[in-house]
Amino acid sequence: MIPVLMCALVSLSLAQNDLDILFPELEHSRTIYVTEDGPKLSVAADQLKVVTRRGGNATLPCRIQRDQSLAPNRKMRVKWTKLTSDYLKEVDVFVAMDYHKRSYGSFHGRVHLLGSSPMDASLVITEITLEDYGRYKCEVIDGLEDGTVVVSLDLEGIVFPYFPRLGRYNLNFYDAERACRDQDAIVASFDQLYEAWREKLDWCNAGWLSDGTVQYPITTPREPCGGKNTVPGVRNYGLRDKEKNHYDVFCFTSHYKGRFYYLIHPSKLTYDEAVRACQKDGAQIAKVGQMYAAWKLLGYDRCDAGWLADGSVRYPITRPRRRCSPTEAAVRFNGFPDKKHKLYGVYCFKGHN
């Protein structure tokens, strides 16, 4: 090893001598310093998470910090996009450059810049929908300078597990999306399910989430639900084939504009009679998501089992008592009875435009 090292040192010495002979004008030691100015433009948000409710308005903060050495630029562009739940795509929301402004898709006519100052690129979203939930990116481009910041829009609401009349584990991902929409809800995100688990949601059936994963929340470990010796948590099956695999789904809903109520009727009703009774009262038969929202967000309590739009029979209890969910506050589920059975009342919903 030592002879090899000596040979290498001799070779380097000879090479240096050769360079000295060939290029005598070269200096033996020269240090070159490269300096680069920091970014002359950046963007920041006063808060990275904004919480609102369906039907309300929200302002997503985005403030431009611009070096005074930059010349004024009327073509500075502000662009807002929405990140998909799997972060693979960005959906255009709003673009502004000088006097030119444009909103896109479902955001058309509902978004504009706050514009409290020339350096304020905050986005105002009005008439918030369930689908507006998610993460938004503010991007500012000024010539060769640019900056971005991501802000989350969260909604007050509730996560609930759902399966249709067909029974458990009958929904592929696209069926799950339709099932939630039919119940005035959307497929829940992992963050929403995790927050529900922290609020003691315990459910032993796996369900789709908006990112294409399948998970379920366990607060009380037990043998059929991952094992009784496991720790509490959100169990994760990972990503699943959206067409071939079938599970239940976790839906999310928020505040609504309208009135949810149990219809006082002189007799019990079949399903078809329940639908007509709500219509006669100037309403529609209520959906599962509307019952969960009324129960969780408005404290609705009623110890009468009633038909809902999907053909299920349920009732909401916020004050546990004998014969009415004695052990816990919950939306009680009586299954999917034969629609011809004349055994139940009905819950209606009257929307406010």
TrEMBL record:
Alphabetized Pfam families for the sequence: V-set, Xlink
GO BP terms in the entry: cell adhesion; central nervous system development; glial cell differentiation; positive regulation of neuroblast proliferation; skeletal system development
Ranges where the Link domain occurs: 158-253, 258-350
Keywords: Disulfide bond, Extracellular matrix, Glycoprotein, Hyaluronic acid, Immunoglobulin domain, Repeat, Secreted, Signal
UniProt signal peptide: 1-15
PROSITE patterns (UniProt xref): IG_LIKE, LINK_1, LINK_2
Ig-like domain location: 39-156
Entry's localization field: Secreted, Extracellular space, Extracellular matrix
Single GO term (MF): hyaluronic acid binding
InterPro entries: C-type_lectin-like/link_sf, CTDL_fold, Hyaluronan_bind_Proteoglycan, Ig-like_dom, Ig-like_dom_sf, Ig-like_fold, Ig_sub, Ig_V-set
GO CC, any one term: extracellular space
SUPFAM superfamilies: C-type lectin-like, Immunoglobulin
Cysteine pairs bridged by disulfides in the record: C204-C225, C303-C324
The organism's place on the tree of life at top rank: Eukaryota
Family from the record: Belongs to the HAPLN family.
Function per UniProt: Stabilizes the aggregates of proteoglycan monomers with hyaluronic acid in the extracellular cartilage matrix.
UniProt-recorded name of the protein: Hyaluronan and proteoglycan link protein 1
